[in-house]
Amino acid sequence: MSRLADKQICLVVTGGIAAYKAPDLVRQLKAAGARVQVVMTAAAQSFVQALTFQAVSGQPVHIDLLDPTAEAAMGHIELARWADLVLVAPASADFMARVAHGLADDLATTLCLASAAPLLLAPAMNQQMWRSAATAANLELLAARGVHFCGPDSGAQACGDVGPGRMSEPAAICAAAEGLFGSNELLGLQVLITAGPTQEAIDPVRFITNRSSGKMGFAVAAAALAAGARVTLVAGPSTMAPPRGCDVINVRSAAEMHDAVLSRSANCDIFIGTAAVADYTVVEPASAKIKKSGAAMSINLVPTKDILAAVSASPERPFTVGFAAETERLEDYARTKLQSKQLDMIAANLVGMPGSGFESDDNELSVYWADGGRELGKASKSLLARWLIEVIAERYHGQAI
Ligand code: PMT
Question: Residue ranges of the domains in the chain?
Answer without folding.
Answer: 8-179, 190-286+293-400
